[in-house]
Specification:
The chain is built from eleven helices and no strands. The longest helix has 23 residues. By secondary structure, the protein is mainly alpha-helical.
Length: 212
């Protein structure tokens, strides 16, 4: 019973749409401006830097919290599979939120939070890779995909950390999910129409619509 409750809690935590909440606090429906995504990148373009940092941090916390909740059950060897299930449910919660009629975001920040909970060193390296790619190309989507793909690669070669096979499988699934969620971004990258970091969106009309 406690395992079932923990897994339900992981999904519900993952489902909390912090980007939508932040938008509402600013009088904006974040799902109707910019890319329509509920993550930190669209918050950055639509609202600003500080709100984006807050959303990024809270979304990452969701993934890390799921790992910590499941690890606290102390289920021995089978515990790693419960951690994987909880982490996946948190990620799915972000992408298919019960509070947003099972819509959501691309779960990059939430997936990073999961990796922070599993191995903060790998998470830090992946984040640095993301920063470097975004700084060089100015494409957040490209940095997100490359950073995501780097995680299972690092886990595979991280022999000294004895990464459990279940966690490697989780990293592979999460990275594949992120790439699949970015399929529209991939098309825009190939056509040269992908938005770069720093570009703003006009939220005036949306603010007027929300205020009515």
């Amino acid at each position: 019973m406690k395992v079932a409750l923990a897994l339900v809690l992981c999904y519900l935590i993952g489902s909390i749409p912090f980007g939508v909440i932040m938008g509402r606090l600013r009088g904006i429906d974040i799902q109707k401006v910019g890319s329509g995504n509920i993550g930190a990148t669209n918050v950055l373009r639509s609202i600003g830097v500080v709100p984006a940092i807050i959303v990024f941090t809270l979304d990452a916390f969701k993934g890390c919290a799921a790992v910590l909740i499941c690890e606290s059950l102390n289920m021995g060897h089978v515990g790693q599979y419960i951690v994987v299930a909880g982490a996946l449910l948190a990620i799915m919660g972000h992408s298919f939120s019960i509070f947003l009629k099972f819509t959501g975001g691309k779960a990059v920040s939430t997936s990073l939070g999961v990796i922070i909970g599993l191995n903060w060193t790998i998470a830090l390296i992946a984040f640095v890779i993301w920063v470097v790619v975004v700084a060089v190309t100015r494409y957040v989507s490209l940095g997100s995909m490359i950073g995501a793909i780097s995680v299972p690669a690092m886990m595979f070669f991280w022999k000294s950390q004895h990464v459990a096979p279940a966690y490697l499988a989780l990293a592979i699934l999460a990275s594949l999910g992120i790439v699949i969620k970015h399929k529209s971004n991939i098309r825009r990258l190939l056509s040269g129409t992908e938005s770069k970091i720093g570009q703003k969106v006009d939220t005036t009309k949306e603010k007027e619509a929300v205020s009515k």
